[in-house]
Amino acid sequence: MARTLSRDLRDGVVAAIDGGLSCRAAAARLGVSVSSAIRWRQLALEHGRAVVKPRGGDRHSGKIEAQGGFIRELIAEQGAMILTSNRGFAEWGEVFGDPVVANALLDRLLHHAVVVQIEGQATASDSMPN
């Protein structure tokens, strides 16, 4: 995937074109492709500046949202829930195999949650027979 070039560079290309250079000359002077110079000039005319399209974002929440109805029904039936984990939130991406999915899940779980974090060694493991 192509990287996003800086806003300063895009604004510089547009300013050079506004200053009288052709798109080709402005592109050559600032080291960008002619097609980028043309596109940025068009965006500047339409929006007042060469805006960038949003990149990235959450493309995985559909996996969680597909289960949203089930989760909401479960919460409605059960009322309050207590979820426990022996892993920190930072490790959930490893557990689920995808940090984006884990972050989306945590975002939904923790939205109205009260988090109680208990540090230290479990006492039950000390009393368990070997």
From TrEMBL:
Domain of life: Bacteria
IstB-like ATP-binding domain ranges (all copies): 76-122
Keywords: Plasmid
Gene3D superfamilies: P-loop containing nucleotide triphosphate hydrolases (3.40.50.300)
Ranges for domain Insertion element IS150 protein InsJ-like helix-turn-helix: 15-57
Pfam short name (any one): HTH_28
GO molecular function (one): ATP binding
Protein name: Transposase
Species for this entry: Hartmannibacter diazotrophicus
